[in-house]
Amino acid sequence: MEKILVVLPVKESHKALLEANAPEGSEFVYNEAPGKELIQDATVIIGNVAADKIAGTKKLKWFQLNSAGTDGYTAPGVLPEGAYLTNATGAYGLALSEHMLAMLLCLMKKLHLYAEDQKEHVWGDRGNVISIEGSTTLVVGMGDIGGEFAKRMHALGSRVIGIRRNKAEKPDYLDGLYQMDALDEWLGKADIVATSLPGTKATYHVFNAEAFAKMKEGAYFLNIGRGTAVDTDALTEALNSGHLAGAGVDVTEPEPLPKDHPLWEAKNVIITPHISGFYHLPETFERIIRIAAGNMAAYRDGKEMKNLVDFTTGYRKFQG
Q1: Is the Cβ–Cβ distance between 156 and 132 less than 8 Å?
Q2: Catalytic one among 159, 261, 274, 290?
Q3: pLDDT in tens, 177-209
């Protein structure tokens, strides 16, 4: 008998969907703050439980994350050998891509500066603005989030170039698709550089002082993936020197960003506290439940689940 622990804030409709797709005779426990005993007794867990609370479990066969990121869960000894790990890739593209677009338009149209003037009751003209149309956008990380952002930029008239780890067929909304070895070449050509890279050893400080120096003067930078992909001090310097026209970040390193960190006071930066995802857009949660329910049916029927994570890379495995 499967003992299925669900730690998400589900409604009755969500419970019904999960249970309808579960193996016959499964026992469900719904608890958003489970103790060690419940965690250690579960054969299936739906929703993120801290990695240190899972470590040592012997019964766990499948762990479905409610996040796209897998930070900490692929480390040796966290999950039992042979256990499946699946993430929520596909749930966050809508919310995060719209958040990125909102930050970018705010910066390009100087709305953040007019918001400051409004607080001071200043009626003033901040000068020229620029348009997305005719720009070149470099999207680093072409998963669900990067792909959705690329689609929106393409629709608004930008020339969009994608960078990803592995070779793949170029979708129609991209004007070019390259691997990471082409990053330096395109950094100097892009008006907008957007990254949704996950937090792995391979992505640590991909955007450092050298990378920012290679970017076009007056370019905009967006980070919606993980803060560890960016050297925060280098980003602060690139903004304050005027080399970058602006940056929008929903993630930072360190995180939470300390109150006295210089990035708070950097020129033309918009900082949001890692809130673009989560469940602030209700549709995100619905997508997570649908992913979990679909994988539940696959688990029940002995079929391959979606979003299986490769423990060696921390990324979702390629599934044709």
Answers
A1: yes
A2: 274
A3: 999 999 999 999 999 999 999 888 899 999 999
